[in-house]
Design a protein that fits this description.
Length: 192
């Protein structure tokens, strides 16, 4: 069995030649090779420009990143590398925001992903479901989408950094979230 290897000067199937050149320049600016930049750019595209899960030795191994928030890499005690990885991810995410790079993998639309929230929200930083209720958190837009009984509502999260969800059982079945100030009740957030 022979292994097919992509030549370095051939464009990546996920990016145009022009986009790949931008990825290469951004990666080099932060001290990474083209392949590490491509891996991170693909992960950010898969995360809709706001989150990424990646695995590359130059990036500290396996890791996760969210825009304006969390970064974890396998080389957890290498603070200098973490700073460079964060800078690379932020720069690539900024390029998706300006339209210089795609905010989703090639050929993928919100319809093919099965998104149930309004498409203008993009990709959530986190999402989940509990007891017939689905939620998606968009921290950069300060929005929370919730679907109950087939109806979607979008809430303004203000300065809350929404984390996990919980649901009270009983007569109200109240949905609440964890934020940096403690519990955030859905009913306390304004609908957009």
């Amino acid at each position: 069995m022979t292994e097919t290897k992509q030549e370095p000067d051939m464009p990546d199937p996920q990016f145009s030649a022009e986009e790949m050149e931008k990825v290469r320049h951004i990666a080099e600016r932060h001290g990474f090779g083209e392949d590490a930049g491509r891996v991170m750019a693909l992960a950010i595209a898969a995360g809709g420009g706001s989150m990424a899960q990646f695995n590359h030795p130059e990036l500290g191994g396996m890791g996760q990143w969210t825009r304006g928030g969390m970064l974890m890499i396998g080389a957890m005690f290498d603070d200098a590398l973490k700073a460079r990885v964060r800078a690379l991810a932020d720069a690539l995410a900024d390029a998706t925001t300006t339209g210089d790079l795609p905010d989703r993998p090639a050929g993928e639309s919100s319809a093919t992903r099965g998104d149930w929230w309004p498409s203008e929200l993009g990709r959530p930083a986190s999402s989940g479901a509990q007891d017939g209720c689905r939620y998606a958190v968009f921290p950069n837009l300060r929005r929370l989408a919730v679907e109950r009984d087939g109806r979607t509502s979008v809430y303004d999260t203000g300065d809350h950094r929404i984390g996990g969800a919980s649901q009270q059982q009983g007569s109200g079945s109240d949905l609440s979230f964890t934020g940096q100030y403690g519990t955030v009740r859905l009913e306390d957030l304004p609908i957009v």
